Amino acid sequence: MSDSKPGDLLTKQQVEDAYGVLKNVVKHTPLEYSAYLSQKFNSQVYLKREDLQQVRSFKIRGAYYAIYNTPAEVRKRGIVCASAGNHAQGVAWTAHQLDIPAVIFMPTTTPNQKVDQVKFFGQENATIKLVGDTFDAAQTAAFEYCHEHELTFIPPFDDLHTMAGQGSLAVEIFDDAKKEDLNIDALISPVGGGGLISGVSAYTKAVSPNTQVIGAEPAGSASMDLAFKSGHPATLATIDKFVDGAAVKTVGELTYENAKAYVDGLVTVPEGQICTTILDLYSKSAVVAEPAGALSVAALPGLRPKIAGKTVVCLISGGNNDINRMQEIQERSLIYEGKQLYFLVNFPQRPGALKYFVNHVLQDGDDINRFEYTKRVNRGKGPVLIGVQLGKLSNHGPLVQNLAEFDPEYLNLADNLSLFDMLV
Ligand SMILES: Cc1ncc(COP(=O)(O)O)c(C=O)c1O
Question: DSSP E strands: which ranges in 171-320?
């Protein structure tokens, strides 16, 4: 862990030093032109493919460099980290390479795919502890463990070595851009705790001051945005944990200072938009991006006028997507697009009622994909949770009109998020 303190700004030299070490350890990932996204957004879009990194995310960079900078005799005793999954994989991979013990704390909500990968990369060197619901809870437990056992904590983002390590990917981007004579107008980076964007922006502003560095945060955990508005890191009361790599309640002190100094703007992206982007990246470009990994591309629709005609680099920061999450991703995407709807409807409990509903309420191509009585009643009518996937978006108007005739008291769960969370 570096002796970093609030107010310390990362320098180009520090990022280049990190690159000097990491270029012999990690993959130099490709900077790929995306013909599909370029056409879609009327600009030149390039993807920095950190999903192709050894541990399928950029996190190996900061983890390795922070551990590398820990004195050998200290790290031999053991290192500790807290992570939503990807930093853990970087730490586990490094612990195995350097043959040192690592104790790794992850929230209980970490997708299984990530837990399994940590075991695989760390092998006998890694001990995993699943604690708490959020990254912040896992981190508190990790701090206590470090204190109790006098071990060294490897910070996931709020540390100059970690930030410099993450920034090494920007050295690769600008080296590759130079070879292709590319002038990068904008660089979009996901933001969780802020380590990646700190390293990337510090380097970018030193070598290409006119390149706009834009941070993309999930709408449900926009903690850097809150920090910018508050004038200091502040804690979000609740977060949506869906974008597990970037769902952080409080950004770091150092990452806040660096982002404030070097980042040109922040955008927040709805989780549903991120889901649509994951599916689009997969089907159109054969890129497997995890939610945080898709954030930068998911930010493009919101930046459309700003990037028209420009050269834009999006950081695909990770590809550790648990296949078991695909159904949820598809569902959230459909809901966001307005194609999947959920209603609570008083349904007559008599033969033929469902047939009537299908023939008189639904439109051509609409499909019922959920039908559940939510409580048993003997009054001839019972509340039913109905999921409808629309045949086409224009079916929405006639459907809700018919529904109002069928049951004037029906509820559209999109208008009642607590009910939605309870029932769907
Ligand atoms: C895939 C991925 N993207 C982005 C981030 C956010 O990085 P940072 O916390 O450095 O802002 C993370 C963090 O774990 C991640 O795993």
Answer: 186-190, 212-218, 265-269, 311-316
d(CA 124, CA 319): 24
Nearest ligand 1 atom, CA 194: 11
pTM, two decimal places = 0.91
Are 133 and 68 within 8 A, CB to CB?
no
Pocket-testing residue among 47, 52, 59, ligand 1, by greatest number of atoms within 8 A of Cβ: 59
Which residues have C-beta atoms less than 6 Å from ligand 1?
57, 59, 84, 86-87, 157, 166, 190-197, 245-246, 290, 292-293, 317-318
What does the alpha-carbon distance between residue 250 and residue 234 come to, in Å, rounded to a whole number? 6
Q: Is the torsion defined by CA of 300, 306, 309, 311 positive or negative? A: negative
Question: Residue 316 has what DSSP assignment?
Answer: E
* Domains, the chain, ordered by start: 12-58+162-322 (3.40.50.1100), 71-153 (3.40.50.1100), 338-423 (3.30.70.260)
- Which residue has a Cα nearest atom 14 of ligand 1? 245
Q: pLDDT digits over 188-233, tens only? A: 999 999 999 999 999 999 999 999 999 999 999 999 999 999 999 9
